[in-house]
Amino acid sequence: QVQLVESGGGLAQAGGSLRLSCAASGLTFSMYDMAWFRQAPGKEREGVAAINWSGTLTYYKDSVKGRFTISRDNAKNTVYLQMNSLKPEETAVYYCAARRRAGTWYGPAQFSIRYDYWGQGTQVTVSS
Questions:
Q1: Distance (Å, whole) CA 119 – CA 121
Q2: How large is the greatest C-alpha to C-alpha distance in the chain, in angstroms?
Q3: Which end of the chain is more exposed for a tag (fewer CB within 10 A), N or C?
Q4: Which pLDDT tens digit goes with each residue over 9-67?
Q5: Tens digit of pLDDT for each residue in 99-126?
Q6: Buried b vs exposed e over 2-24: b needs ≥16 C-beta within 10 Å?
Q7: Handedness of CA 11, 15, 16, 20 (dihedral sign)
Q8: In contact, 124 and 9? CB cutoff 8 Å
Q9: What is the pLDDT of residue 109?
C-alpha cells in the first residue's frame, strides 16, 4: 500500500532551521506532484509548498517565500522541505501529500486541489 512517512520535525528556536523529509513507498514517485501542508491547533490546514513531478515547478505560500525551499529526489522517492528563519506562529503539524500528475500545474490552486495520499504528519514546534 502507499505510505508517506514524514520525519525531521522537532523543536527549533525562532530564527532557526529544520529540514523535513517525506519518504514515499508503494507508488511510482515520479508520477506524482507533491506538497507540504501544515495545521496548527484550532486552525485550518494550509498549503505551504508544492512541487511538480520533475522538480521543475514549485509554488509557495506567500509568507514562506524566501525562507522555505521544497525539493525532491526521485531516485530516493523523497520530498524535502527546508525551513529557515522559523517563526513561532509556524508551530504546527506538517504533512506531505501526493497527487498523481495530470499534465497541469495549478500554481496557487495546488493547495486547494484534491490530493490522493497523505502522510501522518510531523510536529514542528518553534519557540520564541
A1: 6
A2: 42
A3: N
A4: 999 999 999 999 999 999 999 999 999 999 999 999 999 999 999 999 999 999 999 99
A5: 999 888 888 889 999 999 999 999 999 9
A6: eebebebbeebeeeeebebbbbb
A7: positive
A8: yes
A9: 87
Strand (E) positions, 1-128?
3-7, 10-13, 18-25, 32-39, 46-51, 58-60, 68-73, 78-83, 92-100, 117-118, 122-127
Residue indicated by cell numbers 520564541: 128
Residue of 21, 101, 29, 89 lying closest to 61 (CA atoms): 89
Compute and round to an integer the Cα radius of gyration of the chain: 14
Please report where in the chains the cell 495546488 appears, as a residue.
110
DSSP label at 54? Answer: T
Q: What's the grid cell of residue 3?
A: 505510505
